[in-house]
């Protein structure tokens, strides 16, 4: 077509896609701004420390006790490129969480999708889902936290979105994207086992729901068609399997010299060795003494959910019930995610080894889909009021909308950006109660130009009785080394040489380095022996962990 010829018509702007992209940019900004303002949690410090060890030694091997390999492998590259700080360490999680609103487009019923109206979300619901993925307090808080929970949740939603696209007759690109997303989910966290269990339970309940409403024959046909479409052609199935294995081997293969050495042994270690290790540590190890009572964990999980995401859960319940018992046909996409969220209430408190607020990520993420349906119901109610010129309906919808936005804003301000105190329901007890930037500054200045030991840990709290018990070349590590967290991360960042003594006799026989760290209860014991040192105390947790740092 020449420049003089008219075009076929005006270019249509997809306002829904534009809105989702805008929300994605806002989500990224919300996670990246002030990302390093909160000191590292003990779990974050473990990941950061071993990533630095990986960067220094160039060797890496998957160990189930340390979590999935995704963050170690990616952060190693980040540290090599831009350096290691609290901000750069959390950047991978922040970017993955910030891009989560884009996943909402996979659940959307587009303007040309007339043949699949029962599977997708409407335009308004898609934008709402993107907004909830951007600002949900739980996803926002742990999207600024160095753990694999948010990446697992985002990649899990991406897997399900791609499956829905495949079921709706989408091209093979969704099969390949879904395979890559599944491999990334597996690399993110061992909790992927819980996600798979929840998927199976949700799929069974969604199919059974069709039978309960008198559509048993339809359900059988739908299951057969779904199995056929998921299987696809042999070429696309093999391509998806290859995509999964390539990503899986990339993250799980042992590394020497910072790189993977392709060999049958390397592939075997990634494909077969990693699952065997996971089973030995997380299943057999749990049977040998890692059990816990379910009710305390379940009640703590629900309590945190209600405190931090009560609005989202209420919207999810309304959205599910309205879709299930409303006048129109129910949508499997809403039912599936509601059942997924419901199953997670039981599954994750069972499989976890510690009751912690980050478990709520795995319930909130799927609950956002029925929550979006609940907000969509409110939008439709207000729209009908406008069509009928019903001022009361419009006012009610507007007030409810403002109340929801206000509640979410309060929750975000009080949790994601709130204080690191016990008043914040998302703050784990292993979060330091004090700012550790002064510690970093003081130690950095004190050890500059020093030769030999830079930092000495004092006392049985930090130093084991036997030799080498407080080293951390690789996980698992001793409790005494764990007691040094999160300081171990900051000291490793500074390149500090550390050592330890257990009692005054050993201290007297040691040349005192520029920095000495001890339990706060040892302050009066050490102060007379460290003349010329300045002492400062730091709370390394919300309670029961305070240290004194002597700096020369």
UniProtKB/TrEMBL annotation:
Organism of origin: Haloplanus ruber
Domain of life from the UniProt record: Archaea
Membrane-traversing stretches: 16-34, 89-107, 127-143, 150-167, 179-202, 237-254, 304-322, 334-351, 357-379, 391-417
Protein name, entry field: Flippase activity-associated protein Agl23
PANTHER family, per the entry: GLYCOSYL TRANSFERASE FAMILY 39_83 DOMAIN-CONTAINING PROTEIN, GLYCOSYL TRANSFERASE, FAMILY 39
Keyword Acetylation among UniProt keywords: no
The keyword Membrane is assigned to this record: yes
UniProt keyword list: Membrane, Transmembrane, Transmembrane helix
């Amino acid at each position: 077509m020449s420049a003089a010829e008219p075009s076929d018509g005006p270019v249509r702007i997809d306002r829904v896609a534009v809105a989702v992209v805008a929300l994605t940019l806002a989500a990224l900004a919300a996670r990246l701004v002030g990302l390093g303002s909160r000191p590292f949690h003990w779990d974050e410090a473990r990941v950061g420390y071993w990533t630095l060890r990986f960067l220094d030694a160039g060797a890496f091997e998957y160990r189930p006790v340390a979590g999935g390999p995704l963050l170690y492998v990616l952060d190693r590259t980040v540290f090599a490129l831009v350096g290691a700080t609290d901000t750069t360490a959390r950047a991978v999680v922040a970017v993955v969480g910030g891009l989560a609103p884009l996943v909402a487009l996979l659940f959307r019923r587009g303007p040309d999708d007339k043949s699949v109206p029962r599977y997708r979300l409407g335009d308004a619901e898609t934008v709402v889902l993107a907004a909830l993925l951007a600002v949900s307090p739980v996803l926002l808080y742990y999207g600024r936290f160095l753990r694999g929970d948010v990446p697992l949740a985002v990649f899990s939603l991406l897997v399900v979105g791609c499956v829905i696209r495949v079921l709706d007759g989408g091209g093979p690109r969704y099969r390949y994207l879904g395979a890559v997303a599944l491999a990334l989910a597996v690399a993110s966290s061992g909790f992927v086992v819980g996600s798979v269990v929840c998927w199976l339970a949700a799929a069974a309940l969604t199919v059974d729901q069709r039978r309960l409403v008198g559509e048993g024959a339809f359900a059988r046909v739908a299951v057969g068609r779904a199995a056929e479409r998921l299987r696809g052609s042999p070429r696309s199935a093999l391509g998806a399997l290859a995509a999964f294995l390539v990503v899986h081997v990339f993250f799980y293969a042992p590394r020497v010299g910072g790189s993977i050495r392709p060999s049958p042994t390397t592939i075997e270690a990634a494909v077969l060795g990693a699952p065997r290790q996971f089973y030995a540590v997380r299943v057999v190890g749990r049977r040998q003494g890692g059990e816990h009572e379910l009710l305390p964990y379940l009640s703590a999980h629900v309590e945190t959910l209600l405190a931090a995401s009560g609005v989202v859960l209420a919207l999810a319940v309304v959205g599910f019930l309205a879709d299930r018992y409303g006048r129109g046909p129910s949508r499997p996409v809403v039912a599936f995610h509601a059942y997924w969220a419901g199953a997670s209430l039981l599954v994750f408190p069972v499989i976890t080894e510690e009751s912690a607020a980050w478990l709520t990520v795995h319930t909130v993420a799927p609950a956002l889909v029925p929550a979006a349906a609940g907000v969509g119901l409110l939008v439709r109610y207000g729209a009908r009021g406008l069509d009928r010129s019903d001022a009361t309906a419009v006012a009610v919808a507007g007030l409810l909308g403002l109340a929801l936005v206000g509640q979410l804003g309060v929750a975000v301000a009080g949790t994601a950006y709130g204080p690191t105190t016990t008043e914040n329901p998302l703050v784990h007890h292993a979060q330091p109660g004090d700012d550790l930037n002064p510690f970093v500054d003081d130690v950095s200045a004190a050890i500059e130009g020093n030769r030999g030991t830079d930092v000495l840990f004092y006392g049985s709290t930090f130093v084991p009785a036997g030799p080498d018990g407080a080293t951390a070349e690789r996980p698992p590590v001793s409790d005494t080394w764990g007691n040094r967290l999160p300081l171990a991360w900051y000291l490793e960042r500074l390149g500090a040489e550390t050592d330890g003594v257990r009692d005054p006799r050993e201290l007297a026989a040691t040349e005192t380095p520029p920095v000495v760290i001890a339990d706060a209860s040892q302050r009066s014991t050490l102060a007379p022996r460290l003349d010329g040192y300045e002492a400062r105390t730091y709370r390394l947790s919300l309670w029961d962990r305070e240290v004194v740092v002597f700096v020369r």
